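Usage example:
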Amino acid sequence: MKNKAGKNKLPFILLPILLIVIFTLITTRASVDQSLIVYCSHDSIFSDEIFKKFTLETGIKVTPRYDTEASKSLGLTEKILREGENSDCDVYWSNEMFSMPVLQEHNLLKAYKNKNWDRIPDKFKEENGFWCGFGARMRVIIFNTEQVQKPETAKANFSESELSKMAIALPLYGTTLTHFAILQKYLGEDKLREIYKSWRQKGLQIVAGNGPSRNLVANGNCQYAWTDTDDYFGAVDNQAPVTMLPARLPDGKTIIIPNTVGILKHSDKIHAARIFVNYLTSAKIELAMARSSSRQIPVGPVDEKLPQEVAELQKYLDQGADLKQTFSERTSLLNWIKEEHQLK
Amino acid sequence: MTSIFLLSVFRSLIISAMIVLISRQVYQSYSGSHGKRRKVFIFLSLLPLITPPLLPAYTYSSFKINFQTSPYLNELIYGLITAARYMPYTVICLFLLNYSRDNSAHACDKLSPGNKLPLIQRQAPLLLSAILPFLLCLHEYEVASLMRTKHWSIEVFNAHSGGLSQTMWASLTMVATPLTISLVSLAFAFYLKKFCTKLQHTNISNLKSPNNTLSFGLLIFLLSQCIAFPLLVVSYTGLIGFSEVFTSGWMLSEITNSLSFAIIATICTAFLSLYFLSFKSSAVFILFTPGLCGSLVLGLIVLNFFQMPIISGLNHTVIPLTIAYILYAFPLSILLNFIYQQKFQDSSLKTAQLLPQQEKQAILWQIKTLPFIICQFPVFCLLWFELTLNTLLAPSSMPGIFPRLYNLMHYNENEKLSATVAVAVFIPPIILALTLIISRIGIKWTNKFSGN
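Running the assembly step on the lines above writes:
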């Protein structure tokens, strides 16, 4: 193979091919083991510890694959969906509820009623065992206490004429998408569209995620915002002047969003996957998650005493709406939000 | 989406113009100085290459700056961060184009027929250097996303939410316009090539002696807001995080993984660029297409491609990410190697061939090997800091360091973050230094061998 100058340039193309082949051979040899591959959208700072303890206690090695804030919920769910049965994922640990029914719709999950099945309330698990919830977060309204003296009355501000001091995350992803889905279930598509339009016209600040909306309030740029309890506690730990109230639905119910776990249908490590799911849904892990800095709320009963802040949140569990009814809203919701933001 | 796209193009043009003006000033000071001063200029102008792109954005978004309600402030800070980030690429372009402006050359220029050339031809090196930052700004995603700057790449990302509703064709349709603009820009770069060669030994513009104080001031201003200030903010927690990070177990393996992919892909891209450039065919443009789709769309294309039954077995190997990295870096690599070749074909190389063996090797190292390595360094940095492709395509057993870094940012884990950032920042210069040392030793050994 010669170029116009007549020089032999074959080595320029052979060397890269050779390099890639050697790289593949070395890494393939190194990665062939029997570790359980867990796709995990729960934050690595908290889940790393759980994986380590699981390996110590069971001897089963776990290879986690994490999502990033930058790729939002697109990363792992999208990867599993696109790869289908070729995916190397054995277990999917999602930090919200909406990914699981999508995978279930595509026939990618395997039903398994884990050992802790009975301790998890029905509204946090799929009836046939395709997925199961544990350790939850709650949707809250976070307030800046230097700007809002009485949060109980301030929540009425959502109907005010000017909303530039209120923030929410773009409702295309994560728990804000779930929040909008349940609102759509309650209010109907037309009404919610109308409300969202009016909020935007009043200057509502729509930011990249729950973290940024929390930051706007913690920094004093906004008076209040929708976020999750774990983000709220992040601000509390940084000594920000904040307080919170549960975000409530028109009938007074709260929005409790659990972590969810499901086994992938094509996994060839079903036995190890089941052991892991049993471990993750146990009272011990729910307790560990409650004691972590993200203060997840156990959805099932736990034997030991919970931290004060989590114990206070637990009283909202019974008031939580059944989010499973909202799954059907997802597609139409995504479509109109994309339309609203001219993303189609 | 159209208005946001036009805004992105307009912003990219403004920022790239700003970058070229600053880089020209800095490069003139660099080429007009000697010894320590010269080293200081080159060190300062290349410093942004080794800064994690999200770090400045993360720092500013942590402060009481409301980017959402201050769109002009947002644009200003985003512009400055982006200008500082992409300035080194332009300085390297000018270095590779040997863009020198001394007074004698200026006098020669007045006598030279080149002076009568149209403006576009006289300013070809500057225009060529502006195309690179323009393309980089146009395809930027992560910083814009964190700062909520209106950018077409974020709109494309958001349009993908919801999973399978987006087919591959829909993804490609979304990037059709930016892709076309990028390809046209690159075609223009190739068109400018002949003028650069023609003007290489003549002066190309009427410029005065370099103002070193101005250059130094510009560099310090950009670097302080892009590197020093963010580093100071994340490292205020001191060195507490180091022990925790180094004993955590993930650090070493994740750095090795990121490093392996970046090094292998950089070497492959360099060789493939030289291979395709040697054909001097316009068909090379086809190879730019995937890289100019942006990291998200490229990642999804590669992910889909490796689902084909015949090659699905390779899906969980290192091949998809390595190929994606090569395709992603290809436009930058081709452009840099193309500019490098202008220097490579310089008559000084032919003159060096006439020197005795010992001197010839030293001169060749200076005028051939060193520029070649410097030319590959930005490609390495681009791949080292890449996040989206890594998240989508890295094998589960080989996670990279940057998804971890960005999680630390999200959860304000500043102690661990400062330690991880410090490591991330020091890796590229260490790799560059090692490459230079190894190549120098290699040449000496070759010299010794051929001398015997």
